[in-house]
Amino acid sequence: MAAVLRQLQPTEHGVHGGEHPADADSPAEGAAGLLAEIKADPGRPGLETFLDEVAKLRRVRSLGLPADLFADVAERRVTLWRNRAAIAAPSAMRRDNADQVRQTLLAALCWRRQTELTDSLVDLFITLVRTINTRAVNKVNKTVEAEIRRVLGKEGILFKVAEAAVEHPDATVREAVYPAVDGGEQTLRALVAEAKANKNAMKAKVRTVLESSYSNYYRRMLPQVLSSMEFRCNNTAYRPVMDALDLLRRYADRPKVPYDAAEVIPIDGVVPADWREAIYNKSGKIIRTSYELCVLSALSAARRELQRLHVGTFTGPTGTFQQVTSLTKPQRDLLAKLGIPHPKQVLDLQPAPR
Hints:
58% of the residues lie in helices and 5% in strands. The longest helix is centred in the middle third of the chain and has 52 residues, at 99-150. The protein has helices at 2-5, 27-39, 47-61, 75-87, 90-96, 99-150, 154-167, 173-176, 184-216, 221-228, 239-250, 288-306, 329-338; strands spanning 311-316, 319-324, 346-351. By secondary structure, the chain is mainly alpha-helical.
């Protein structure tokens, strides 16, 4: 490990940067190329920031620090070492610390940054998925609003209905509302049918915009997500999403190749009901970009909801216990959709010694 960390050792000029493009000119530029890069926080949320963070995580992982490097050290002490290395200038690191101390501080920084960068990637991933959806919906909403404004008479009908309801609050709809509208019940029924058709059309338009945005720009993040993040599941009820991720991983380096006909493609628990028909082309084959969007959305939703579960530790005269916060409705719905039983509320109970 000491040999690996030498590339991060501060010199009188800066920091040894290892084999990095920034090293080409001087060791001082290596500081910006490696140690400063490791210390840096992510930039503005976006695809390029996500790709930069993936590259940063890979560089830290390339140091090969053992997962149990600080297993016998108190977490608080590791945090102190990490923070000490993070705020120290290269010159101060060299001047104020012996070689072994420098290596320990740098190891603590890089070891802890692996977890921090992974968490940052997860947050960026969720933000990107939400951004793709939000932008698609907003774009379609603007189009729909413009179309509605072009249709004459709808605002007038709405005004007449509202006026009739306010002026005759005790009357029935048939008595007060229908007569207020030209064409009566038939006109209102036609409006309801049109609204339902517009709702379905809007969903289709959102899917079209989503697929276009994802395939033309955001799809670049998929191989990075699959290669830089490890997804684990201890409960077989999570298998649909996990199996879908495995499928995406197997085809990640073949973006234009259709899924093999022999593949078992998870649908339940992965593809929302209003996407079931949209993920198939006219030949009945899965449209990969559509399916990938469904998988990423399912993964994002699961992560976003389940990470809100918190564990609290409570100590009283009779002992100590750990308790999970109560599930929210979105969490209960998600667990039910995935077929996962609710977690126990009390996880651990230790009676006080007598």
